[in-house]
Amino acid sequence: MTAFEINNVNLFYSDFQALHDVNLKVNKHEITAFIGPSGCGKSTLLRALNRMNDLIDGCRVEGEVLLNGVDIYKEMDVNVLRKRVGMVFQKPNPFPMSVYDNIAYGPRVHGIKSKPQLNEIVERCLRDAAIWDEVKDRLKKSALSLSGGQQQRLCIARSLAVQPDVLLMDEPTSALDPISTAKIEELVIQLKKQYTVVIVTHNMQQATRISDNTGFFLMGEMIEYGKTSDIFSVPSDKRTEDYITGRFG
Amino acid sequence: MDSAIQQKTSRRVRAIEVTTKILFLVCSLVAALTLLLIIFFIFSNGIPAIMEVGAINFLTGRTWTPTHSTNPQFGMLPMLYATFISTIIAFILGSKIGKWGAIYLMFFCPKKIYRPIKTMVELLGGIPSVLYGFFGVAVILPFIRNNFGGTGNSLLAAIIILTMMILPTIINLGEAAIRAVPNHFYEGALSLGASKTESIFKVVVPAAKGGINGAYILGIGRAVGETMAVIMVAGNVSRMPGTLGDFFQTSTLLAPVRTLTSGIAMEMSYASGLHRDTLFGIGVVLFIIIISLNLTLAILNRNQTNYAKES
Question: Considering only CB atoms, which chain A residues are within 8 Å of B192?
Answer without folding.
Answer: 82-83, 86, 105-106, 109, 158-159, 161-162
